[in-house]
Prior knowledge:
Blueprint: H1 3-16, H2 23-63, H3 67-87, H4 104-128, H5 130-157, H6 162-173, H7 175-186, H8 195-216, H9 221-246
Helix pairs in contact: 1-4, 1-5, 1-7, 2-5, 2-8, 2-9, 3-4, 3-8, 4-5, 4-6, 4-7, 4-8, 5-6
Amino acid sequence: MEPLTAILVFGLAMSLIALSGSLVLLLGADTIQRIILPLVAVSSGSLIGGALFHLMPDAVARLGNTPLVYVCVAGGFLTFLILEQLLYWHHCHRPALEHRQPMGVLLLIGDGLHNFVGGLAIGAIFIVDFRLGVLAWAMAAIHEVPQELGDFGVLLHSGWSRGRALIANFITALTFPLGGLVAWSASAWIDIDFLIPFAAGNFLYIGAVDLVPQFKAVRGGESALSNTLWWTLGAGILAAAAIVGAGY
């Protein structure tokens, strides 16, 4: 598949995942309460595993084991740290009943920027390696489901109507393919391989800073152990894929 086609197809598919937030209406608060933290744990493990076992080795293979690679990783990490600080944005994945009174518009602005940066990074990966792009997209997609469940619940809790919340989430998600198109346009002028370790930094931040505290905060031995096992599953699948792909 041509890079531009992949960016458009997978970018729009990612935007459609924003509609998964409506599952809050179908499943109910109790069901969401039971499934969301295991989903967060799996997505955290897969994001961190993907960054460590796939994106980082690919970046080193393309750019060499040089300080530039690790500077780009730190830059990707720092980008999301700055976004959260500037927008007072907390990427919360808990159901609405557990969330502090949010600022709906600010939440959407934060998510829009988050999606744009993610689309920029993953679009660049599609340009340099289609298979790695699919893998990075899948890791991000797993992360989007609990995010959209939480965001949709937050908007409803803020007084937004169901239709307005769905439309707003979908429009915000369209910044993901927009970021991919920006990466594709930039690739005609500059070497965008540096965006691979940049994406690794993005994934490490989301997986470790945004997601780990959510399921780590659970009290109770059985629940905490269960969430840790879900995290291990997410990371383990990505590690196994890397080992099989390397021919070990």
